[in-house]
Design goal:
Elements: H1 2-14, H2 18-21, H3 26-45, H4 49-74, H5 76-95, H6 99-121, H7 126-156, H8 163-193, H9 198-221, H10 223-243, H11 246-275, H12 279-303, H13 312-337, H14 355-361, H15 367-404
Helix pairs in contact: 1-4, 3-4, 3-6, 4-5, 5-6, 7-10, 7-11, 7-12, 7-14, 8-11, 9-11, 9-13, 10-11, 13-15
Family: Belongs to the oxidase-dependent Fe transporter (OFeT) (TC 9.A.10.1) family.
Main location: membrane
GO cellular component, one term: high-affinity iron permease complex
Length: 405
């Protein structure tokens, strides 16, 4: 608290033009610097080297420098690091370096700007809560699906007293969990050394996550699709059991569970980027989800179908939809930072959110990000309406078939 008061005093006393214009809005200056860095990249990619250099210089001299005084008190090392990075960006433009290299430098600058805004604004309570909720929900949803699939496999094998078959299922599930951990480690490593900007990686990851989340939402809503999936899995199990191959049974279990694990890795990669300074809260949510899944797993295998797991699916659909909308906003924002999409700022016209909250909800004050999220909400509304209409349309036929039987 003392450091923050001292930082505010420094803003009032030492910021350029502070006496004439009043206190500097530090978060606003940082956001403007962030957008000018993205603009300079677009100009450089279009061949306007001199204009790009001037824009990058303006980002530092006309905006970031106004935010330096309080940040020097709170984190002097970060300020020194950012001065070098801004210098690297300008020098790279002057020396004609490849766009990909400058995008990497700009990505480091944007990460530091966000960190600086978090230092000035504080993380508050909402951002850690959102990160923890996201960490919990992703693992719990995917883990619950995996637990239900395992329960269905064991239910199918219930009539068989061959203990080797059941052990093959456990080995297949354990291998799937191990493969999921390896996939997470490999994905983290590959993304860290990929020869493209982190913004572009984040954008592509968000788009893929949105596509999977969108399909999952309506899969969970449509009972017929879930029945078809269960029938397909039982058919594969039947073939494996009839052949007597333990390897075949283990592979069926592995592929069934690993699909959930792969989705989990993808969603966490997107959420980790959004969590930023509150990443520890995401890991807290993961830990709580692991405990909740352990309890659910024991109850599921003890009470089986008597557990009201079906009632969870509507809530999971709602949470899945919220994740998709958030990832859409972050994906568009990442494309903007990579210089692929223009930026139409709405700063000053809309309420300003904490930067960490913006990253976790995807609510960024630009026309492009908000329009993409609004479109996503409309698509979800239309899809939900279609699913309801389709279920009501087919329910009389289903009821008629039941009466005839």
């Amino acid at each position: 608290m003392i450091l923050r008061l001292l930082a505010l005093l420094l803003v009032l006393l030492t910021a350029p033009g502070a006496h004439a214009q009043g206190a500097v809005d530090v978060p606003q200056q940082l956001r403007t610097a962030h957008d000018l860095v993205a603009q300079s990249l677009r100009e450089y990619a279009q061949g306007h080297t001199e204009q790009a250099f001037r824009t990058a210089r303006s980002a530092y001299l006309d905006h970031f420098e106004y935010a330096e005084p309080p940040l020097r008190v709170l984190n002097p090392d970060l300020i020194l690091e950012m001065e070098y990075r801004f210098s690297d960006l300008r020098n790279g433009m002057r020396d004609g370096q490849p766009v990909a290299e400058l995008q990497r430098v700009a990505g480091d600058i944007n990460d530091s700007l966000r960190k600086a805004e978090g230092i000035v604004s504080g993380t508050g309570v909402l951002a850690p809560t959102l990160a923890a909720t996201g960490g919990f929900t992703i693992l719990f949803r995917e883990g619950l699906e995996a637990a239900l699939l395992l329960a269905a496999i064991f239910s199918y094998l219930e009539s068989s007293r061959n203990g080797r078959l059941r052990r093959a299922v456990w080995w297949g599930g354990a291998a799937a969990l191990l493969a999921t951990v390896v996939t997470w480690a490999l994905a983290t490593y590959v993304l860290s050394i990929a020869p493209v900007s982190r913004e572009l990686i984040s954008a592509v990851t968000s788009v893929i996550a949105v596509v999977i989340l969108f399909s999952l939402s309506f899969f969970l809503l449509q009972q017929t699709d879930r029945r078809r999936s269960a029938e397909f899995m039982r058919a594969r199990l039947g073939q494996a059991v009839q052949s007597g191959s333990l390897l075949a049974l283990g592979l069926v279990t592995f592929t069934t569970i690993y699909r959930e694990g792969f989705e989990t890795v993808l969603f966490y990669q997107a959420l980790a980027v959004a969590s930023g300074p509150v990443l520890n809260s995401m890991y807290l949510g993961i830990g709580l989800a692991a405990l909740a899944l352990a309890v659910t797993f024991m109850l599921l295998f003890r009470f089986g179908r008597r557990l009201p797991t079906a009632r969870l699916f509507p809530a999971l659909v709602g949470v899945t939809a919220l994740f998709a909308v958030a990832f859409v906003g972050n994906g568009v924002r990442a494309f903007q930072e990579a210089g692929w999409i223009g930026v139409t700022n709405l700063y000053g016209r809309l309420p300003t959110l904490d930067p960490n909250v913006s990253a976790l909800t995807g609510l960024h004050p630009t026309v492009e990000t908000l329009a993409a999220q609004a479109l996503m909400v409309l698509v979800y509304a239309a899809g939900y309406g279609y699913v309801r209409w389709s279920s009501q349309r087919h329910s009389p036929h289903v009821a008629g078939r039941l009466e005839r039987h």
